[in-house]
UniProtKB/TrEMBL annotation:
Required cofactor(s): [4Fe-4S] cluster
Span of domain Radical SAM core: 132-358
Organism the protein comes from: Helicobacter japonicus
Gene3D superfamilies: Methylthiotransferase, N-terminal domain, tm_1862 like domain
UniProt entry keywords in alphabetical sequence: 4Fe-4S, Iron, Iron-sulfur, Metal-binding, S-adenosyl-L-methionine, Transferase
Gene Ontology molecular function: 4 iron, 4 sulfur cluster binding; metal ion binding; tRNA (N(6)-L-threonylcarbamoyladenosine(37)-C(2))-methylthiotransferase activity
EC number: 2.8.4.-
One Pfam family linked to the record: UPF0004
Domain MTTase N-terminal residues, every copy: 5-113
PANTHER family (UniProt xref): RADICAL SAM PROTEINS (PTHR11918), THREONYLCARBAMOYLADENOSINE TRNA METHYLTHIOTRANSFERASE (PTHR11918:SF45)
Name of the protein: MiaB/RimO family radical SAM methylthiotransferase
Amino acid sequence: MSNQKRVYFKTFGCRTNLFDTQVMKSNLGTFECVEDENLADVIVVNSCTVTNGADSGVRGYLNKMRHLRKKVYLTGCGVGTRGEEIFANNLAHSVFAHSFKESIGDFLHKDERFFYPESNENHIDNTLIAQFSGKSRAFLKIQEGCNFACSYCIIPSVRGKARSYPKESILSQIRTLSESGISEVVLTGTNVGSYGVDLDDYNLAKLICDINALNVLKRLRIGSLEPSQIDSELKNALMLPFVERHLHIALQHTSNTMLDLMNRHNRVESDLALFDEFAQQGFCLGSDFIVGHPGESEELWQEALHNFKKFPLTHLHPFIYSKRDGTFSSTLTHQVRGDIAKTRLHTLKDIIAAHNIDFRKAHYVPLEVLCESKIESEEGFVYSGLDQFFNRFHFTSNKADLEGQWLNFESYEIREEGNYGKI
């Protein structure tokens, strides 16, 4: 058993996968978790399959580990799309789906190979995570799966239908994290806004209020929301003082024709009204945007760009469309050239960079920063963290013990790449 003692986790993809990795780390039993793959005897790959490119990244890593003669286990979303092929080609010693991850401690004792495909699409983890290693904040998964059917997305078929973690489990998890020193929690999931869709008279708004009533967190951040999920009750909950003054609301596009092609529920006119409402309340606002999706003609792009400029956006995750086999979008023939898509992407980035600095200049208020990391410099230490608007804040100090602390800055310098201060 000595040759299976040290385990390294390689996590691909989203925050939900980060949480799933923490679940596995909490169920390792007698095995030691290491942060350097070179020191590990066993590699557990928590895979992403959101695009064909994501699959390629996972496969490349598996090939690298095979050449290094590591014993590799594959789990995550890629099990549903590429797991059987990877197992058959001996790129992983064993493969297991999402619902088996809490058995990781037992699996690592097995000598024989195994392939466990998903057998329980309604699975919900029972593990309470006491610590979120290496982080100043914790990501907490509150739901699993998605009931949407966006044309470009494979995730509902590998994560299953939307289902919610019990309220008591989430509140207990937050108390446990608080006792370990965590004071900021990010609520995450496959589709966070659908929390409660399978519960009786309970939803995300009520959960936020119940978390607030615990009075153990300094800041709560909400994962990506769909515009169609934000009703008046949720709006009121999002106004609670401990909720971060930043919201990420997924648009994906600002042309109604493209939204229809993507099988999205949101529409530009109601989206803009919603964003304007939150902007008037002083929120920084972020979103996702897919450029280069099949069918995005120059005419539709110009329409979308015209609409996009109206939105009070300060943050953006723009993506160039990447084909995902098994989706409706992958069957469409009107493709957008890569160089054109890249130009469109940079256009959006430039607009958002200008919006962001304009917001920071217009909202020069005291900033509350959770210090995350530091590097040593000639002047002492340079620290980095995020403020209540989800903007990056850097500051210098001679003190060496500020990581994980909350710090207030009434005066600071606004630069293009972030805000800067001193202690």
